[in-house]
Amino acid sequence: MKNTKTLIFYILTLITLVVIIFASAFIVLSKTLFKTSNASQTNTTNSSEKAVQMPITTLADAHSNLASNNDVPILMYHYIRNVNPTTDKLGYNLSVTPTNFENQLSWISEQGYKTITLNSYCSNPKLAPDKSIILSFDDGYRDAFNNALPILTKYNFIGTFFIIKSKIDRLNYLTSNQISQMTAAGMEFGSHTVTHPNLALAKIDKIKSELTESKQNSPVFAYPSGKYNQIALQLTKEAGYICAVTTNNGVAKSNSSLFELPRIRVSGNTTLETFKKSILTGKGL
């Protein structure tokens, strides 16, 4: 009997020790898991905070996003000349000095942009290479030959020139011979109608004649003064053009309407910093 009681005492003691050991191990394991969980949460929180603190900080980063989406800035120039802003305010607003023009093209070149024709872009916008840019010039002024062409060729750039047909060979406008020389140098020419009318107000027959008589071999068009309506837009399509540019502010996107392409206006008071920002952010001026 005495031996039986002794055996029971040892068995209960052993069970108690086992319970204590398991309980201690459980407590240690729980503390370890709790610390690991907290460390993981802390690292996750820090990573999230760091991610939040990494916004786009440079205009170059902004353009990297723009280019990857095949957005293409189409710049709009008129005159490339020197003009006195006090005596000709309107002319000044439409003019960019040759010095400023060269500074702009120099920066474009340094940034790795490549000029393309409007025709090539409109043929398949989604295939436009990264950092493509289009330089367009409205009205066909003679300084395009005297001032713009030498700077364009210096940087191996292409320009798209929209010509008013009735102004060819007129005072201060391009001559037929100059147009031929510029074409041979790789420049692109597009239509800007025959007489530069307001297509939003013109009658249908007038719009048709302006579009067809000025088209010649060009598939690209610029609405005079950016004025048009849905009738003019439809008639432009029917006349055989593949696209048309407006004076609406912005950059051309792969999903832009090919007959309402926006442009970035460059004027006499456009600073180089403003010029850079308008292109890199893709928001225009």
- Structural class computed from helices and strand pairing: alpha/beta
Distance between the termini: 105 Å
CATH topology of the largest domain: TIM Barrel
**What's the helical proportion of residues?**
40-55%
Tally of separate helices: 10
Shape: globular
Spans of 5+ residues with little confidence (pLDDT < 50)?
Answer: 32-68
SSE pattern, N- to C-terminal: HHEEHEHEHEHEHEHEHEEH
Can you tell me the CATH architecture of the largest domain? Answer: Alpha-Beta Barrel
The biggest beta sheet reads: 8 strands, parallel
Percentage of residues in strands? 5-15%
CATH superfamily of the largest domain: Glycoside hydrolase/deacetylase
Rounded average pLDDT: 84
CATH class of the largest domain: Alpha Beta
CA radius of gyration is 34 Å
Describe the structure.
- The structure is a single chain.
- This protein has 285 residues and is an alpha/beta fold.
- It has two domains: 1-54; 66-280, TIM Barrel (Alpha-Beta Barrel), CATH 3.20.20.370.
- It is built from ten helices and ten strands.
- Strands 1, 4, 5, 6, 7, 8, 9 and 10 form an eight-stranded parallel sheet that branches. Strands 2-3 form a two-stranded parallel ribbon.
- α5 (118-123) links the parallel β4 (114-115) and β5.
- The chain is globular and about 100 Å long.
- The protein starts with a helix and ends in a 5-residue tail after the last helix.
